[in-house]
From TrEMBL:
One of its GO terms (cellular component) is plasma membrane. This is Periplasmic chaperone PpiD. The lineage of its organism: Bacteria, Pseudomonadati, Bacteroidota, Sphingobacteriia, Sphingobacteriales. Keywords: Cell inner membrane, Cell membrane, Chaperone, Isomerase, Membrane, Rotamase, Transmembrane, Transmembrane helix. It is a single-pass type II membrane protein. GO terms for molecular function: peptidyl-prolyl cis-trans isomerase activity. InterPro entries: PPIase_dom_sf, PPIase_PpiC, PpiD_chaperone, Trigger_fact/SurA_dom_sf. Belongs to the PpiD chaperone family.
Length: 705
């Protein structure tokens, strides 16, 4: 007891500390983490520098937004492309920045003033502030924008966006300087120019006989471990893996809609058709019943589905068409209304943008209204456009805008107008002056002319996607579960054959891959593959679209030079060709002696003459590119039968009849410029790849995507 009393404080401290530690460890284990887990915001580490996920994601969202602005939908494949493209940009910028810092490259104040100044602004600024109609730099618009930013009236988002834009300009300028330092060291001497000239212009005439690899059946070729090793050792550098990859095979169980599902969906659509025909509030009916919500608008011929185009333009109001199957949905269409309007409208306009009045919407509208009064009072529209319009491209023409149709298309590839503009113009009377607001500001519009006539229809469409029923999905899932339960690491292919299934292979799958052959969005399977060991069966049945997937990991390929076992299957065809080449070379060797005609006769071949082949285009007419053979031809003596050369298509023996040399190079300077230009075109990409190869990169993207 005395012992315990003397040491009670230490004992209590120990047990309290142990309890706290156990509590913390349990929380960490419960949340799936560890004491040494990576930073939750650490997307990657490049040469010791962290790449934050939130910063990367900001750039990715910008790239996605730009893609959407082009009217493109973001599919899983596009998502994967944008992620990879953004990653390459971020990685390249990081690596370049490190090199730039080492060299101490900067952009000085005077240089920056020139880049964003008025006299000679950076090309990126020129692109941002170009007139959309003429493509010319709009200096006054740029001046107004800079004044707006400096005035303090711009919002914080606008100020930040401009600041980020200027920073990007500076970084781009530094990168240009760095690239210039590298490329300025590239040169070509007179020998380079002469070699390039002769490679493109020196002609050779020769004869050859060839034994095709196809002359030896694959079944008669036995490959040994020594054959594989010899080929692997000779081509080891070709098997450098730039990043970790996985190979796996998988089978899919189809849960696509059955005939019963299609019949049931069509019956539902037929009931909808009857209800749609009886509807008195078509807009409400579409909003309630359609899976794809779309506003009801007037459309011209050619702008709706081909199945509806002819029918609806010849039907009476209230006509119902369908159900019909289109893009995986049963659809019912109703002609809600039809009208005839002008084919095109000609207008002039004066644009009052918010920047010109300090960002105030009220002031912009008041200014537009006052200008309209001046026009109504007899002031020349053209003069006012030149004085007040923010659209300098049209202002120089007195506010003139090309004719446009009911959808705002100006024709002739001149672009289109915003809906607020063309809708207002089509509703107005000829000769009238109106004010309309758009995203660009307030437009004072004068309707100059209205030509032709065109029929427009308003069609409401109710769609019901054709989906698999729970019964169809259950059957497919049960079959997949049954298959998964029957598997061991060694019987995957046998069990698949037993079920009448053909396994598919996915090779060299990266950690951030989104799709697989035949599967658009397979991120869950890829994540599983990067947690599994070779031979492992998938831990569950994975659903990808209307398919249920069971997979087996077949290979893990680490970054770096891959071992022979990892590429053995991949190189098998090439090894077989190499073995055939040895056999055919031996056949030629036994026939050597005498002329090429005699050699060809002994091996059962024929002699084929060839002429006017150049080194820079090593194609044998009627065959294919044969780099090794043509290279040997240009290095051979005239009238000498060559030794057997293994090419791409077979083994060759040839004899050179003669060379035709081109005229002496008269302008070496021009030829040097061509050689240097070719080097410059490759230099930037090669430089970036060299920096990547030399970098230490810890890539955690698979944790986030």
């Amino acid at each position: 007891m005395g012992f315990l009393r003397e040491r009670m404080g230490k004992i209590l401290a120990f047990f309290i500390g142990f309890a706290l530690l156990a509590f913390i460890v349990s929380e960490v284990v419960r949340s799936g983490g560890s004491f040494f887990r990576d930073d939750s915001n650490e997307l990657a580490v490049v040469n010791g520098e962290k790449v934050p996920y939130d910063k990367f994601n900001e750039k990715l969202e910008q790239a996605s937004a730009q893609f959407k602005q082009q009217g493109q939908s973001i599919s899983p494949q596009i998502t994967s492309y944008l992620q990879e493209n953004t990653w390459n940009q971020v990685l390249s910028q990081l690596l370049l920045t490190k090199e730039i810092e080492k060299l101490g490259l900067v952009v000085g104040d005077d240089e920056m003033n020139v880049m964003i100044g008025d006299n000679n602004p950076d090309p990126q600024i020129v692109r941002q502030f170009s007139d959309p109609q003429t493509g010319q730099f709009d200096r006054s618009r740029y001046d107004q924008f800079k004044a707006y930013i400096k005035s303090g009236k711009a919002g914080p988002e606008q100020v930040k966006a401009w600041g980020d834009f200027v920073i990007d300009l500076i970084e781009a300028k530094k990168a240009t300087k760095y690239m210039s330092l590298v490329t300025n060291g590239l040169y070509a001497n007179s020998l380079d120019a002469t070699d390039d000239y002769e490679a493109k212009n020196k002609l050779v005439k020769f004869k050859y006989t060839m034994l095709d690899y196809a002359s030896i059946p694959d079944a008669k070729v036995t490959l040994t471990d020594a054959d594989y090793s010899a080929y692997y050792d000779a081509h080891k550098n070709e098997f450098k893996n730039p990043q970790d990859t996985r190979n796996f095979e998988y089978v899919s169980f189809n849960a696509a809609p059955s005939k019963e599902d299609s019949t049931a969906a069509k019956l539902q659509a037929e009931k909808l058709a009857a209800d749609f025909k009886a509807s008195t509030n078509d807009s409400l009916f579409v909003q309630i019943n359609a899976e794809t919500k779309a506003p009801l608008t007037f459309q011209r011929k050619g702008s709706i589905s081909p199945k509806l185009d002819t029918t609806m333009f010849n039907a009476a109001k209230g006509f119902v068409y369908g159900p019909y199957l289109e893009n995986g949905s049963y659809k019912v269409a109703k002609l809600i209304d039809a009208k005839t309007t002008f084919d095109s409208v000609k207008t002039k306009h004066i644009l009052i943008d918010l920047a010109s009045v300090g960002g105030s919407d009220e002031k912009a509208k008041a200014k537009a209204d006052s200008i309209k009064k001046l026009i109504d009072g007899g002031k020349p529209f053209a003069d006012l456009a030149k004085t007040f319009s923010a659209d300098k491209g049209s202002a120089e023409k007195g506010g003139d805008i090309p004719s446009f149709d009911a959808n705002g298309n100006m024709g002739g590839g001149q672009g289109s107008l915003v809906p607020e503009y063309y809708n207002a113009a089509f509703k107005a009377a000829k000769g009238s002056v109106i004010v309309a607001k758009s995203q660009f500001g307030y437009h004072i519009i004068k309707v100059e002319d209205q030509k032709g006539s065109v029929k427009l229809v308003k069609v409401g469409i109710v769609d019901k996607p054709l989906t698999a029923s729970s019964k169809t999905q259950t059957i497919a899932y049960s079959n997949a579960q049954k298959f998964l339960a029957s598997l061991t690491p060694d019987n995957f292919e046998a069990e698949a054959r037993k079920e009448g299934l053909k396994p598919r292979t996915a090779e060299d799958v990266t950690a951030v891959a989104s799709g697989l052959p035949g599967l658009d969005n397979a991120r869950e399977i890829v994540r599983w593959a990067y947690k599994a060991d070779v031979g492992d069966i998938s831990d569950k049945v994975y659903q990808v679209g209307d398919q249920y997937i069971v997979a087996r990991l077949t290979a893990i390929k680490p970054k770096g030079i891959l071992p022979l076992e990892a590429v053995k299957k991949q190189i098998e065809p090439a090894v077989r060709v190499a073995v055939k080449a040895k056999q055919l070379q031996a056949k030629f060797e036994s026939a050597m002696g005498g002329s090429i005609e005699q050699v060809a006769q002994k091996v059962g071949g024929k002699v084929t003459p060839v002429e006017n082949v150049v080194f820079a285009n090593p194609i044998i007419p009627g065959l294919s590119a044969e780099y090794k053979v043509i290279g040997s031809v240009f290095g051979s003596a005239v009238n000498k039968v060559s030794k057997p050369i293994d090419g791409t298509q077979g083994v060759y023996v040839f004899v050179v009849d003669g060379f035709t040399n081109p005229p002496v190079l008269s302008n070496a300077i021009k030829q040097k410029e061509q050689v240097i230009q070719a080097m410059l075109q490759r230099s930037q990409g090669m430089l970036i790849e060299a920096l990547k190869d030399n970098a230490t990169v810890k890539d955690n993207r698979a944790k986030f995507f």
